[in-house]
Amino acid sequence: MYRSPYRLLIVVFITINGLFNHSLYSQKQLDSLFAETAFQLNLSKECKAQNALNQIQELYPELSEKDALRFIYYQAAININNGIDDLALEGLLTGFTKLKNLETSKYHHLYAEEIGRIYGRANDFKLAIDFFKQGLSFATEQNDSLAISSAYLNIGSIYQMKQEMGIAEVNYEKMLRFFPTEGGDTETLATVYSNLIGIALGKGEFDLAQDYGIKSVEIHTQNKDTLKLAGVLSNLGSISMYLKELDKSNDYYFKAYELLKDRTDTKSREITALTLDNISQVYYLKESYKNGYDYLFEGTSIERELSKEKLANKISEIGAKYALEEKEKQTEIERSKKESRELLLYILGIALAGTLVSIFLFIRATKLKRAKTKLEFEREKIEQAHEIEKMQNDVQMKILNATLDGREAERKHISEILHDTVSSLLSSANLHVVAVKMQLKEQSPPEVEKIQAIISETSDKVRDLSHKLMSSVLLKFGLRTAIEDLCEKYSNSRLTFKFEAKDIGRYDEHFEVKTHHIIEELANNIMKHSNAYNASIRMRVVKNKLNIEIFDDGDGFNLQEVTKKDGLGLTQVKARVKVMNGKIEIKPFENTGTQIYIDLPIPN
Hints:
About 75% of the residues lie in helices and about 5% in strands. The protein has helices at about 5-40, 45-60, 65-80, 85-100, 105-120, 125-140, 145-160, 165-180, 185-200, 205-225, 225-240, 245-260, 265-285, 290-365, 370-405, 405-440, 445-470, 475, 480-490, 510-530, 560-565, 570-580, and strands spanning about 495-500, 535-540, 545-550, 585-590, 595-600.
């Protein structure tokens, strides 16, 4: 009987296809959630975008390397939209380092672009241009004309901010040359024309500025972007007024006014107020003073309303910030109380275990001795049990009293009890055990050795707990004491840290924590990478600025190579200093050491 040779192939195909259906659907669902995140970001709906990312985190706890980098990028974008540039920069720099080990993709350009924009907002133009140029290189490698044009736009914008208009204009022209005829964002094109208007005006080329403005108007009209269209029309009105074309100027101004007069959003009202002010100037130039006054009065009224709203928003923002800080403080107090309760239970457990073991050994030992020796040993063990019981009661009372105090005083008090009282009593108990061993000699049971080992182990744990409780030096004693303690802890037989400080007081808690983090990061670099024998940290206050100098006599390094590879975490350190409105200067000398200078404004 004839059988089809294709029947087996069909069955195998269906079976294999069934195996991959789930993974294919799973990846499609993941891509859909990423697309939803991007869509909500474009609508400036950060909460919904964050919800989509949270779903990804719940449904896909183990992402592939590529998808993990997508996740970091979108999380950074949400943070940027929420005004948290420092957190966004930290995530982007981490992801960008991982990207360098992967094949070039669109995310290489996107990461470099967002990092450059953050540095641009922080006025660190050098780093901004560096990352924009890296993005340009990635876009060129992929032959992505849209990404190339975007990179030239970003570079041109930075040079325009630096008032280097010639270089800015060259980059804008390159942007126009690479901008794709299809698929490009015409809003970006309109932005370039708007920037070129400013450059042309600076060169006195008013006709060229008008040409750029008209092109921008065409794009905004086509896209029905009322706000930007009104802004460009207002600019064209100003150009015409400068050229003494007053009727033409007012024609532009009134077109802008008609577009915005019924809008209630803040930006529209700001442009409306400015446009009305310009209309009044045109009427004054035409000697129509009554009309000029009327439009000036209307524009001034809008400006006053905006000022009142901004003041009310600022007051509301301050109130919300205060409420958030109070909530965070309360959360920290509750966490501290919970830790104290756990510590109390741990200490009580140790004390109880020690007491039970002591009683057990006491009973076993008394059976092996003669009557007189038995009575003497029993008396000594009873005295020791009384001492341990007294120690336990003292610890309980002191810990209960400490719970009623503040978090920092509580930790310090418990630490002192552990160090000064518990450790001493445990040492005393150990001496008693040694005395018992000497009396029993060969008749000493093995349990005596065990109790001595338990007491020794308990002493070590109590000492470790005491040191752990004193870890909050920064919050308790301030920046100066914390850095001095850091230098002492980091010093060892090979490397010596010296510390000097002058006029260092207590500052805002957030300022001290961030400053401590910066110094700790640099000190860690010295320990791990410098091969130094001597290092020093100097701190002083000059003109309401905290000056920090960190020196070492190690191997030094090539600053350009380290920055390029993002080694030693220097990029993150620089970013943190920038966010604090400070300055940092790094002077490495190969084979002779490194000098680092930091200036941080002290907040009021």
